[in-house]
């Protein structure tokens, strides 16, 4: 990444434009978090309903207090353990933070990403960057600059190309705004590592209706219908059955390496769509570690469309 590209990105952000940038999880579509007009443009381009909050990305944790108040000790523990990195914390938002960032909620999502290009951009910009994944609403997250361009075309003013996102799956989201930490979205951080950093036996998921809009719905879905089949032999049989019935069916069975699975997943789903696949029979990775996050995304991708 050249210094002049970062300088151009900073100029664009300062003038309210949108810049897509790589992170270690997925590519983000960035806007100046302090500019209501820029964030409005972000929602318009993404096609995202106003009730869905966006994550504010920070160069370092020193900026947390600019956005959040009543920050609990658990936030420091998690920041010590996982920032910079693939972790988003939901904290109580400061009263002066505009509700457009938070979907009108009283919490704000904050993350200090680790990707060198993201960090360079954040340091040079010197302020928070609001960024959802750089895809149109409800579509598969982009893990390369080419994915971003394919989705957003000229609606994005600049795409910084930092190569394929290493993790390939969106950040772990932990809600620290209530009495106890709640794991809202699993990511590449294993559950037991989260719990250990918090000094707990385990971190529970949400009880009752999801506190993060968009996470229970059939997001993360390609055009193809996804069928999950845990058993390989049964998956191969199902594939044959679909093909005999004249369906354009394919098998996705990347094997048990969950990190490699996460890294490749969104690209493979996009490829299947490009080939006009109707049904993708998918063998999920085994549970545990990042395998849990992949299984979570696959379940969502397989959920019936609304
Ligand atoms: O890895 C990631 O988290 C990527 C990179 C770019 O940082 N970003 C990302 O953003 O995946 P997005 O907007 O596609 O997904 C964030 C999720 C959404 O479901 C949103 O509703 C939820 O987090 N979220 C963000 N802030 C929230 C808040 N204050 N309260 C509840 N949910 C929130
Ligand atoms: Mg997203």
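-> sequence recovered:
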């Amino acid at each position: 990444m050249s210094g002049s590209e970062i300088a151009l990105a900073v100029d664009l952000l300062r003038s309210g434009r949108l810049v897509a940038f790589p992170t270690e999880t997925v590519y983000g579509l960035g806007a100046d978090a302090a500019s209501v007009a820029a964030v409005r443009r972000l929602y318009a381009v993404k096609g995202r309903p106003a009730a869905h909050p966006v994550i504010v990305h920070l160069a370092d944790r020193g900026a947390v207090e600019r956005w959040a108040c009543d920050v609990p000790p658990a936030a420091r523990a998690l920041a010590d353990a996982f920032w910079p990195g693939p972790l988003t914390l939901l904290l109580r938002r400061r009263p002066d933070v505009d509700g457009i960032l938070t979907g009108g909620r009283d919490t704000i999502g904050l993350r200090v990403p680790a990707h060198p290009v993201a960090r360079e951009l954040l340091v040079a910009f010197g302020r928070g960057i609001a960024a959802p994944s750089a895809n149109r609403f409800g579509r598969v997250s982009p893990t390369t600059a080419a994915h971003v361009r394919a989705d957003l075309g000229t609606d994005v003013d600049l795409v910084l190309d930092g190569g394929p996102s290493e993790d390939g799956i969106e950040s772990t989201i932990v809600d620290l705004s209530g009495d106890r930490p709640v794991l809202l979205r699993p990511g590449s951080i294993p559950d037991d590592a989260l719990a250990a950093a918090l000094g707990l036996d385990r971190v529970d998921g949400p009880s009752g209706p999801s506190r993060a809009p968009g996470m229970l719905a059939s997001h993360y879905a390609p055009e193809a219908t996804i069928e999950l089949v845990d058993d390989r032999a049964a998956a191969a049989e199902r594939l044959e059955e679909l093909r005999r019935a004249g369906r354009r069916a394919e098998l996705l069975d990347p094997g048990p390496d969950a990190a490699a699975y996460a890294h490749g997943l969104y690209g493979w789903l996009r490829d299947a769509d490009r080939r006009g696949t109707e049904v993708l029979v998918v063998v999920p990775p085994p549970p545990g570690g990042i395998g849990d996050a992949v299984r979570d995304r696959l379940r969502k991708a397989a959920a019936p469309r609304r």
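Residues 23, 25-26, 28, 52-55, 88, 90, 102, 105, 107-109, 111, 131-133, 170-171, 173, 211-215 surround threonylcarbamoyladenylate (ligand 1) (CB under 6 Å).
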